[in-house]
Amino acid sequence: MFNIINCNYWFNYFLKIYVQVTIIWFLLTWILLAEEFSFNLSTKGISLGSFQMSSIEQGQTYKISSLFESTGILGVFTRIKVVSGVHGKVLGNDNLDLRPIEVLSKWESLINKKQSRIRYKDNKITYYEVLPSPRKNPYSIDPFQLQDVIDPLTVTFWMLKHRSFNQLCIGKKLVSGGQSVISVQFQNKKEIDGFIHCQGQFIFLKGFDPKKYIKTEYSFNLIYENSKQKNSNWSVKSMSFATRIGLIKAIRTR
User: What distance in Å separates the CA atoms of residue 66 and residue 76, rounded to the nearest whole number?
Assistant: First the structure.
């Protein structure tokens, strides 16, 4: 009887410790895989907008939500607001192979309001809907013929999410929101004053007006800094990218 009581006591004690450790591990894992981003966007010193993103990676899944709002002069004349969300799967061991399942977006301006729903399977678009109607684009492609594409919100997270040093400035993705295709690829890696500069290109492939996009390649530069709390991780500090209207700078505020 004494041994049985002792066994029950130690079994319950270790079970309690195990449960506590499991809960702590789960919470730490949850915090570790949750990221928040906030950027101020400007060009030539003029404020364009603010961009916020929250993400959670749990196990083999991810969820992202984002908000863009125009500011400054652009905000006065357009009042653009875009709210988006996506969920999908994470494959592989490097947490960089992101596979979207469904994307929802709502955007509004002084002129109109629209919303879209896109579903993906195995990096192919299987469902595409824009309400009240897609924008008129005579150069639009057939979204259901695309191969190996992910959505714009997922690729933004793929670019901005923290990485290990060996993962910096590596990778290439094809991006489509239904009407066009863009290639996003890292090309060069430089270390300057303790920061890592990742240089790459956006290449506008299909679905664009050739008169407006005579130039189809636009450069970008992401600056990463080493996390003070997690020495193995590098986080984006700022980003700049060339566009048809000029160089846009995105400075991280959170």
Answer: 21
d(CA 34, CA 167) in angstroms, rounded, equals 18
Task: Give the number of domains in the chain.
Answer: 1
CA nearest to 64, candidates 159, 188, 199, 144: 159
User: Mean pLDDT throughout 138-145?
Assistant: 94
Domain that holds residue 108: 33-252
Closest CA to 33 of 98, 122, 119, 123: 98
User: Within a domain: residue 124?
Assistant: yes
1 in a structural domain? no
181 is a domain residue: yes
Burial class (CB in 10 A: 0-12, 13-18, 19+), 236: buried
Residue 45 DSSP label = T
| CA 49/CA 81 separation, integer angstroms | 9
- Return the H-helix or E-strand segment holding 22: helix 2-32
pLDDT of 126 higher than 90 = yes
> What DSSP assignment string belongs to 143-170?
GGG--SEE-HHHHHHHHHS-B-GGGTT-
Distance CA 130, CA 208 (A): 18
C-beta separation of 170 from 161 below 8 A = no
Nearest to 66 by CA among 175, 151, 182, 173: 151
Give the span between the Cα atoms of 162 and 151, in whole angstroms: 19
**Tokens coding 119:** 């579903």
Residue 5 resides in a domain = no
> For residues 32 and 202, which has the higher predicted lDDT (pLDDT)?
202
What whole-number distance in Å separates Cα of residue 21 and Cα of residue 204? 49
